[in-house]
Amino acid sequence: MSQSRLASCIPMPIEHRALINVVEKAKDWALMHGVGMRDKKQFSKDAMQIAPFVLLPSPFPRTEFNKAVELQPILNELMHKVSHDDEFLQHTLQNALQVDEFTASLYNIWTKVREEGVTQPLSLGMLRSDIMLESRCQHGESQCDKHTPYCSWKQVEINSIASGFGHLGPVSREIQSYVLRQFGHGELIKNMPENRALSGLCSGIIEAYDLFGVPTAIVVFVVEEVSYNICDQRFHEFEISDKRPDIQIYRKTLTEIHQEADLNDKKQLIVEGRPTAVVYYRAGYEPGQYPSSREWDARLLIERSNAIKCPSIHYQLAGTKKVQQALAVPGALEKFMGSGAATSRVRDIFTGLYSLDFDESGEKAVEMALADAERFVLKPQREGGGNNIYGTEVRDALLRMRHSRERAAYILMERILPPLVAGYVVRPGGPVPPPITDLVSELGIFGVIIGTKDKIISNKQVGHMLRTKLADANEGGVAAGLGALDSPYLVDV
Ligand code: ADP
Ligand code: MG
């Protein structure tokens, strides 16, 4: 299938010598402004290397960008409502948790803390809705009145845990602005939308801290044993410390929390002798990696405490792929949002999402996917990249799981086919100049929401990020070395 294309922001290819010159400068700019991460192969706490980045911003249609930004508070509210609907979560997850240990462990914690009684009614959601332009026109060649290289955009997923790029999003705009100026195109910077993701996300943590209302309290960032994505995490701390020098932040692994933390008689989570106002999860798990029982115990301890969690356990459950799929079932959105215009706008962003449960619709989905496997992606209930199944493997996996309960742990999703853009990806250790390649992008919109089951206190869109990968790559995780940092260049198509 020939994929449609969007024109790059300046004519490509760029002249060889000019390209080398600017790439060298841009790499130094990157190192000096926190466009970096730790080297996985030669880890050192004293050194950092550049994070992969796209040299010039990638085009993104202005109307679609604005639509995504406007929709974010509606998606925030939807997630908030879903996460507080016990019956919906129970019903939606019941089959998956029979066969998916990770979801089952989350679910068990959720059940336990609900039985014990809620200690902290407030939740802090820091969400990121990831979207891609869809170039496959559903209107058919001759009927489409738009004649654009894309037809619409579709949601890839909504992240409720460890949604990164609060710093790397905005700084991508800065580095690409610098590059545009080096090429003599500073006038184009006006087409790159302002991005205040870092301060917006941090304002969520600060607001939650103030709502907790204990002056001696601290904020805890839950981190992995070894942090590679150091810029993404640390800049949050620097930003909060700048804005609110009175707020102390501690970084702890779940294992450390298990060893060191306790609940006092007021159900406060005591870390380093002080009550915790906000727990912010930044730790992810690699594919195949599974939290230890001590880590799960720490998670339970945190959830039992009155700290405001980001995300709380029900928010994390609401962010599962299974819930995303269940929301696409006819009637589901209406249950949460009524049947007004907002509901149809949200429905429009869903691409085909199918349950693989052992029932009639599940069987139909299996049949449909076997007939045209490459049109689909298979997704298990995990986060953080590297777990999905694509292409010809979809067929193999379905044939293998068809009669096994394992299949209910997955959802089936239509594959989105975004338009191509030509561009240069600068990578650590990569060639200078990099080759010109065909790329595709995924836009993430950040939202912050704070509230209780019945009352929303704060709900806003706070910024964006763009990740871009080689057109033929399945996934585009930047920390995994597959994707590259990028930012949108708004175009009127
Ligand atoms: P994870 O929780 O692992 O991040 P995602 O659903 O975001 O799971 O999938 C990971 C990546 O796979 C996405 O960032 C995107 O690049 C690609 N991907 C996922 N779903 C689709 C889809 N339906 N169409 C095209 N690409 C997809
Ligand atoms: Mg993702």
Question: What general outline do the C-alpha atoms trace?
Answer: globular
> How many helices in DSSP terms?
15
Whole-number mean pLDDT? 94
* Ligands bound, unique: adenosine-5'-diphosphate, magnesium ion
Rg computed from alpha carbons, rounded to a whole number of angstroms:
22 Å
Classification by helices and strands: alpha+beta
The total count of strands amounts to 20
- What gap, in angstroms, lies between the N and C termini? 22 Å
Portion of residues in beta strands equals 15-25%
Which parts are unreliable, with pLDDT below 50 for 5 consecutive residues or more? none
Percentage of residues assigned to helices: 25-40%
Primary descriptors:
binds magnesium ion; about 500 residues; 7-stranded antiparallel β-sheet; alpha+beta; 15 helices
